[in-house]
């Protein structure tokens, strides 16, 4: 780690005399950077920004509201633990669980199948959030349900794909991005090719990076080298896990069940082709369709800056709620709820 820090310091002396903004596009990177104190050892003209890489943080309020509506009707709602305390328009799954609703936490969507089998007279609904990392396993679960003719299982589709969101960040003019630390987990599935537009159209240096502190520092040094050489490209620092072609089996599995669709990102808005919906042959597992749910306009706090924080425009301490009304025990925005959220990282590690 010390060697990479020294290398970055040396490279910084060769940079143009300006502040360099590097965005990490993964919540796990955000936590790794905060917990290891990487920002404290970087030269002052290197600024790290957090992007929209936390799946819980970008899940829109209407999805939470829909899950709550189904829970109140007596159905079993199954979700990952981080989703429990994310605020909806007027409640959260955690509050409804304490009110008696049957809401269960799982570590894998596959567990939902067993819950459905044990509760044949109940509808069991999984809240499907996540990026390309988790959605292939959910696609596999749907295929199992279809093969085993399980009819009381469905999924609220709230999946996101990362590359379209990065286009939105690159098009916004409020903050300049000089380099990207690209997500290691997502890239394990999709490989490096889907990011080529970043360098070919926008000429922004980008490195797919691992999650150890030394990985992150090496990723930053590789970005600086690209800036100095004026040769932006997609590099893979996380070679021990990520291949250029990704995981073709997982990608094929994912798109055999789902197809791309426009999707709403919390605090950002609708992004074209940034979500996944069920293909026609699997629509029977779409909970929104099955229960004829209509996504209603969401009530979101106008003072919560999660949307700006997710696009690098603002940092947590610039939000008036941060550390005051909004804390991990009383979160107002999703960035404070998730274990991968930027506000949670800043609060926990005092940045």
Write the layout of secondary structure elements.
Elements: H1 2-12, E1 20-24, H2 27-36, H3 38-41, E2 46-50, H4 55-58, H5 61-72, E3 76-79, H6 93-98, E4 103-105, H7 110-118, E5 124-130, H8 135-147, E6 153-159, H9 162-171, E7 179-182, H10 184-190, H11 196-200, E8 206-208, H12 213-229, E9 234-236, H13 248-257, E10 258-265, E11 269-278, H14 287-290, H15 306-310, H16 334-337, H17 342-349
Parallel strand pairs: 1-2, 1-7, 3-4, 3-5, 5-6, 7-8, 8-9
Antiparallel strand pairs: 10-11
Helix pairs in contact: 1-12, 2-17, 8-13
Would you mind describing this structure in some detail?
With 351 residues, the chain is α/β, with parallel strands linked by helices. 40% of the residues lie in helices and 17% in strands. The chain is built from 17 helices and 11 strands. It has a 5-stranded parallel sheet with strand order 2-1-7-8-9. Strands 4-3-5-6 form a 4-stranded parallel sheet, sandwiched between helices. A two-stranded antiparallel sheet has the order 10-11. Helix 6 links the parallel strand 3 and strand 4 (103-105). Helix 2 runs parallel beside helix 17 (342-349). The longest helix is centred in the middle third of the chain and has 17 residues, at 213-229. The radius of gyration is 21 Å and the shape is globular. The mean pLDDT is 91.
